[in-house]
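Aggregate trends can hide what the representation actually does to any particular protein. In the encoding step, the backbone of a single protein was reduced to a row of integers, each denoting a local shape. The record that follows shows the chain in one-letter code together with its fold in token form.

***
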Amino acid sequence: MRAVDPRLLRHARAARSYLIVTVLLGLAVTGLILAQADLLSHALAAAARGTRAADALAGTLALLLGVVLARAAACYGGEAAALRAAARVKSQLRRKLVGHCLRLGPAWLGGQQPGQIAAQATRGLDGLDPYFARYLPQLVLSVLVPAAVVVTVTATDWISGLVIAVTLPLIPLFAALVGLHTRAATQRQWRLLAQLAGHFLDVVQGLPTLKAFGRAKFQEQVIARVTSEHRSAAMTTLRVAFLSALVLELSAALATAIVAVETGLRLLYGHMPYQAALLVLLLTPEAYLPLRAVAAQYHASAEGRAAAESIFPILDTPLPRAAPVPPAGSTAVPGLRSATISLTDVSVAYPGRDRPAIGPLSLTIRPGELVVLTGASGAGKTTVFRLLLRFTEPASGTARIGGTDLAAVPVGSWRAQIAWVPQHPRLFDGSVADNIALGEPGASRAAIEDAARLAGAAEFIEALPRGYDTPVGERGARLSSGQRQQLALARAFLRDAPLLLLDEPTAHLAPAAAAAIDGVIRGPLAGRTIILATHRHPGTAGASQVITLDGGRLVDTASRPSGLPALAAAR
């Protein structure tokens, strides 16, 4: 593992000003260390000689006190600047990680472990505090202080300077040898922790299913095994850190003892001035101390660096096919209330698959049409929705809106015109009203209640203990699948979007509730462009187009007079 990871600094440019302050304060600390040793040796030598210059000695001691206070202030300032750098780095890396994951889209996230990514962004990046607050400032001192000490001691006594210069490289050499083993142990520890966090989250989310199939006990054993492996890896890392400290302390103590012995012998025989000997003896420990400290902080910061290394592959994952840059001055976004959507020979391919998910596919959807996508599971209906939602980009072909390449339209402006009800809608641990209002943040309570009535959800919501203020639980755990579906429909209806994408919207509804949704689409929603996906053919139900997909290819297109299907029949 490198002493300083350039990728970490590259992804954290906001912290560079704080790191510059840390380096400057490190220079100040180096000078203060030399001044402190010189003043202290002068004061001790003057006291040993029994000089009568009490005023001069008092002045030296006053200067020494000022230097000690200044050194403490510089050390404090360096640590404070480093802590601010750590906070900026963590904030910037978290924003980059979350933003990049969102830009990669659900297609990429579907193949990842969300719990592991969450552990990397939270617990993992918190481990960068020791790296910036302790390790980097000490790394600066480990370069500046030994060099300054060697130069100063050599100028005072070349023999002692030579001994220090020869023994100094032993400490980083031993630290590097131990660090090779520490890196592997720390990476294994972090990998097991991320695996444990991700697996535990998946188990908690799937606990009802595991209990239903009698597999909860097995997962309990898996978690216990991974926990035991992580505990073993953590203890191995700590053992290596303690042994490393022992080796470094021993080598530094032996080197200091060699300097002390040869200096003491020459002082005893009068071959060395007393003040010079004091200066050498005071500076020698300062030469080895930063190297020992940086080795100790290396171990303390290893977990944070391992976590940061684990997110770099995510940040380096290329985004889907880059959208062309819109021409200068072309900021208008085509409106879906009047613009036609056209797909021309569009294909979508997922990584790791030997054939396209859809394509080549050509469709034309006019404003206000109701289009029914039908076909068996896996036919490509959901992929068409992902394409329209810009969760994935076409591998070939073009998608246009009103003659404008869809890839040139800003994603945010495009999605602002779409309301989407997926097969498995996601509800959050908030109130019923909060979950409906996700479709239109800031909507009034009256608008939320109107949307619930349109979705047929008002009756069961009003029967809840606190009505619209009733918490639904994480993923809507306190509601039935049909009730969750109705809340998702209410969320989409609240959003006055010109394009409505419905993926199996009535799959979990009773026939009466499905018929009620059918009536809503015939009335209040008439005039919106609606694309309905269902794995069952809607029979003779009226629709502008009924498109049948098979294996991602269009096998039948039936154009009908403008009208709306009976959703109950489409189920």
About this structure: Strands lie at 341-348, 358-365, 370-374, 396-401, 404-405, 418-421, 499-503, 529-534, 545-550, 553-559.
